[in-house]
Amino acid sequence: RFDAGASGREKEGYLYIRQTKKIGHRWAVRWFVVSNGTLQWFKKWKTLNPKTNVPLEQCSIRVSQDPLIFQ
């Protein structure tokens, strides 16, 4: 969803993340926001404090063999 209005958020929406557990892997849905050169993810949409802030200044995106995954 594009929302660069009053919130200052450039992009936001749900993405799946792969979580590693002691017994295999699991996919979880998380709310992500790209804002002011950082990627933030939240456990839920209405959560105020992000779980992680990732600076995007020197990041790149690589295409995966799987069309549903980017790295």
Kindly, what is the distance between the CA atoms of the first and last residues, rounded to a whole number of angstroms? 20 Å
Poorly predicted spans: none
* SSE topology string: EEEE
Overall radius of gyration: 13 Å
Largest sheet: 4 strands, antiparallel
The structural class is mainly beta
Helical content band:
under 10%
What is the overall number of helices?
Answer: 0
Query: Mean pLDDT score, rounded?
Result: 77
Strand order of the largest sheet: 1-2-3-4
The coarse silhouette is globular
Strand content: 35-45%
Total strands = 4
Task: Describe the 3D structure.
The chain has 71 residues and is mainly β. The chain contains no helices and four strands. It has strands spanning 11-20, 25-35, 38-42, 52-55. It has a four-stranded antiparallel sheet with strand order 1-2-3-4, with no helix packed on it. β2 (25-35) and β3 form a beta hairpin. 1% of the residues are buried. The mean pLDDT is 77.
Short description:
With about 70 residues, the chain is an all-beta fold. It is built from no helices and four strands.
Keywords, separated by commas or semicolons:
71 residues, mainly beta, four-stranded antiparallel sheet, 4 strands
Spell out the blueprint of helices and strands.
Elements: E1 11-20, E2 25-35, E3 38-42, E4 52-55
Antiparallel strand pairs: 1-2, 2-3, 3-4
